[in-house]
């Protein structure tokens, strides 16, 4: 794949020329859009992401959840404990291997899915993009994430 060789010097060090800053600031803006939609339900944005994974695949290992969300157990465990206290999920040691913890939705966690069903449409209305444009952008970002992830050593995470 060819790389541009003209992106150097002072121009390359401008904040608004940084892909990392565009991604970071867009992520902050997106999270701010979610906050008022999730707050009435008692959900934070990271909790919403956990629920999205569990609605796709209930009764999974914490390690699977962490891989899917790109979170380590040190970040995920306190989050899951708060969600368990809210009654949305249960954590249980795996019978086959006590070191592993299973996560399963409770009836309240399953019911919460209906309460958030309107959120994707609300977010779509707040963007200047069509659904097709957002789907293409999502795919591009996933490809970028996967490509960048292939260049990250385990020691740097």
Description:
This is MarR family transcriptional regulator. The chain is mostly helical and 157 residues long. It has a three-stranded antiparallel β-sheet with strand order 1-3-2. A hairpin with a 7-residue loop joins β2 and β3. The two termini are 26 Å apart. The mean pLDDT is 90.
Tell me about the biggest sheet? Answer: 3 strands, antiparallel
CATH architecture of the largest domain: Orthogonal Bundle
CATH-derived topology of the largest domain? Arc Repressor Mutant, subunit A
Poorly predicted parts: none
Beta-strand content: 5-15%
Coarse morphology: globular
Distance between the terminal alpha carbons, to the nearest Å? 26 Å
Please tell me how large the radius of gyration is: 19 Å
Order of helices and strands: HHHEHHEEHHH
- Which strands sit side by side, in order, in the main sheet? 1-3-2
Helical percentage: 55-70%
Structurally, how many domains make up the residues? Answer: 2
Which oligomeric state applies? single chain
Strand segment tally: 3
What is the CATH level 1 assignment of the largest domain? Mainly Alpha
**With helices defined by DSSP (H or I, 4 residues minimum), what is the helix count?**
8
Overall average residue pLDDT:
90
């Amino acid at each position: 794949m060819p790389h541009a060789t003209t992106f150097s010097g002072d121009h390359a060090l401008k904040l608004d020329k940084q892909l990392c800053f565009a991604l970071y600031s867009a992520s902050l803006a997106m999270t701010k859009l979610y906050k008022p939609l999730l707050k009435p339900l008692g959900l934070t944005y990271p909790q919403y992401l956990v629920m999205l994974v569990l609605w796709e695949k209930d009764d999974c290992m914490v390690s699977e959840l962490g891989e899917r969300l790109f979170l380590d157990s040190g970040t995920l465990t306190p989050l899951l404990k708060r969600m368990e206290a809210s009654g949305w999920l249960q954590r249980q040691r795996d019978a086959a291997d006590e070191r592993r913890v299973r996560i399963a939705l409770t009836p309240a966690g399953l019911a919460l899915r209906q309460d958030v069903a309107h959120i994707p449409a609300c977010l779509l209305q707040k963007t200047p993009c069509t659904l097709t444009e957002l789907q293409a952008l999502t795919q591009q970002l996933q490809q970028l994430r996967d490509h960048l992830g292939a260049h990250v050593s385990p020691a740097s995470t």
